[in-house]
C-alpha cells in the first residue's frame, strides 16, 4: 500500500516540478520570482510546518526513544556520506574546487524542497515530519559549518561565519516546537489553523522552485562527467542501501526500540538528490557552481525513479 503511495507522490511531485520548469521557460517564474519562492519557503512556510507539527504531537516514551535513535542514525548517515564522498573525489582525481562540490553534494540532499513534501505526503502522521526535522537539524549544523569550510577553502572562514547561519527561522521553529512539545501547549484554533495552512504550502512551492531551478541547466555539460554518474549512484542508491543494512543490523543486534517509520524516514532523507542550496553556496564561495547545477539536475531527475526503489527496499529489509 505504501509503495503505491510513494509512487503516486513521486508522480505528483514530478508534475509540480514540471509546472515549475514550464513556468521558468515561459518566463513567468524569473530569477527574482525564484528567489522570492525560496525565501518564502525557507523563512515562512517551512518554519510554520515544523512548529505546527510539534504542536499536534502527543508526547510519549516511544516517540522520545525513536527521536533519540533517529538523531544517532542521522549522524551515522552523514559519516557514511562524508566517507564515500572523500573516496570517490580522490578516485576521480578531481581538481580542488570540483572535489569540494562533489564531496559536499554527496553529503547534502534536497531534504527541504523535496524531502519534506514527500515525507509529509507519505506519512500523514506527524511523527514523520518530526523524524525528518531531526535529520534536517543535523544537515543544517553540518551545512553551515563543514560545507562552508569545504567550499570556501581551508583557513578562509572564521568560526563566527560558520556558526551564525545556524540561527535561522527553521532552527528557531524547531527549538520553539520542542518547547511546545514538551510542555504540551495548545494554541487556539483561530491561531493554529492559519499557521498550519501556511505551513501546508511548503510542498508545492518547494517543488515548483526545484522545477524552475532545473529549467536553466545545460544538459550538454553532463555528458562525459563520469564523476557525476558515480555521484548519482552513490547518493541515490549505494549510500541509502548501505545505511539501511547498517540500521537494520544495529537494531536487530542490540534489539533497539526504533519504529519502522523512523528508520525509513532517515533512509529516505539520505536518498534525496543533491541539495540545490549548494549551487548558491558554491557560487558565493567561488567553487565549481556549474558542476553543482549539473549535479542537482541529473540526481533530481533520476530520483523520480530511485526513491520508490529505495522505499521498496526499506520495506523489504525492515
TrEMBL record:
Membrane topology: Multi-pass membrane protein
Transmembrane regions listed in the UniProt entry: 6-25, 37-55, 67-84, 104-123, 129-146, 166-185, 197-215, 236-256, 262-282, 294-313
Compartments where found: Cell membrane
GO BP terms in the entry: transmembrane transport
Keyword DNA-binding in annotation: no
Keyword Transmembrane: yes
Superkingdom in the source lineage: Bacteria
GO cellular component, one term: plasma membrane
UniProt keywords, alphabetically: Cell membrane, Membrane, Transmembrane, Transmembrane helix, Transport
Entry similarity comment: Belongs to the auxin efflux carrier (TC 2.A.69) family.
The protein's name: Transporter
Provenance organism: Marinilabilia rubra
Upper taxonomic lineage: Bacteria, Pseudomonadati, Bacteroidota, Bacteroidia, Marinilabiliales
